[in-house]
Design brief:
383 residues
């Protein structure tokens, strides 16, 4: 008897699936936009970059600590962004792989009384992303299911877009040739237990100085200051099906417990797809989404190849704690320093599984048993 498998929906995750020539992005969690205060102008304080005009900016150069504390309404400290995400996905690492930067600061929570929050980190955090060369792709999308437009509205003295929803408030703008995003993740905003403010207007007002500082810094930066290192995935040889080169479809069907499965999907870009900084970065970074399914047996498999980015798995593993939803895992066939991190368990249907294979990172999202079977089939083919 065949075992049926359907990949669960990821509508609440900020992730995307990309092919070599195309991108399909799942809609982010739908949420309502909030009214916005009219900021009086740029922040009163602007950062003084510690880097020189010929060296890339560091996170501390982007925004003064005082403005971070204002945005979070609490003392804060720099943090590793991947450790603040319950389920990190490929899109979360795309901006850095594509030659951008992503920075995070976590509030200590001392100014709030969090009573309704479920899951970590349990306190607000500031999330800054800069993707050089992506300003032409910028649009006003912030949250929800509808794609953005080219329309711009002012925020913190700069034209762009801003809104509040789940999981916080976001300001984004095209600055020079870069797409810049500044977001406060406020897990209590939607449940009336916010640390930052009593309303979305309050949260946006608190965010404005930090956003103005980041936007100003990027506007005034030299090209060398925006030249962060990239780890773009290597290109496949002409005529090579990169997905099948990692897992041939007969072996995939066997892993899923079905008689056969269709070829990996290659589709043209759909103009109706939502374009975000993360989805744009995934294309630039060369992340490859591999999707195959069998309509007759209702089987489907999804995995993403992050070529030359095995360090991402190490980064996730280094940020794990005893309370993390993801934990270190063990996959048959892995050798040396290769690692696996997953949410897989016998009592959990959905499974997010990351693993390294040589110099590559691979992300599998499916049923718990299927994710492990797919990962081990990929390893077996490589070995």
């Amino acid at each position: 008897m065949s075992r049926r498998s359907i990949t669960p929906s990821r509508g609440a995750a900020l992730t995307a699936a990309v092919t070599l020539t195309a991108l399909t992005l799942a809609a982010l969690t739908a949420c309502a936009s909030a009214p916005t205060p009219a900021p009086s102008g740029p922040a009163s304080s602007t950062p003084t970059p510690a880097s020189t005009a010929s060296t890339p900016l560091a996170c501390a150069d982007l925004v003064p600590a005082a403005d971070v504390d204002t945005a979070l309404a609490s003392p804060s400290a720099p943090a590793e962004f991947s450790s603040l995400l319950s389920y990190p996905t490929p899109g979360d690492f795309a901006s850095t792989a594509a030659g951008g930067i992503r920075c995070a600061w976590l509030a200590d929570g001392s100014m709030g009384t969090y009573t309704s929050i479920v899951g970590g980190p349990g306190a607000p955090w500031l999330d800054v992303q800069v993707l050089p060369g992506a300003a032409a792709a910028w649009n006003s999308y912030t949250f929800g299911d509808s794609p953005g437009t080219s329309d711009q509205t002012p925020f913190a003295g700069f034209p762009g877009a801003h809104s509040c929803g789940d999981p916080g408030c976001l300001a984004t703008a095209p600055i020079g040739d870069a797409w810049v995003s500044v977001m406060v993740h406020d897990p209590g905003l939607g449940v009336g237990d916010s640390l930052v403010g009593a309303s979305s207007d309050d949260v946006l007002a608190a965010l404005a100085p930090a956003a103005a500082a980041v936007f100003s810094t990027i506007r005034d930066a030299t090209p060398e200051q925006l030249a962060w290192p990239a780890t773009r995935g290597r290109e496949a040889s002409p005529g090579v099906d990169v997905c099948a080169s990692f897992l041939k479809t007969p072996a995939l069907a066997n892993a899923l417990g079905v008689a056969s499965i269709g070829d990996y999907e290659v589709t043209a870009p759909d103009p109706r797809d939502i374009v975000t900084l993360e989805s744009t970065a995934q294309v630039e970074a060369g992340f490859v989404s591999c999707v195959a399914e069998s309509s007759e047996e209702f089987a489907r498999a999804d995995f993403v190849l992050l070529l030359d980015n095995a360090a991402i798995v190490d980064r996730i593993a280094a940020g794990l704690t005893a309370d993390s939803p993801e934990q270190l895992d063990t996959l048959e066939g892995q050798t040396g320093a290769e690692k696996a991190v997953s949410t897989c368990s016998a009592d959990r249907a959905a499974c997010e599984l990351w693993f390294s294979l040589g110099v590559d990172a691979i992300y599998v999202s499916s049923f718990s048993s299927d994710s492990r079977a797919i990962a081990e089939a990929i390893i077996a083919q490589a070995r």
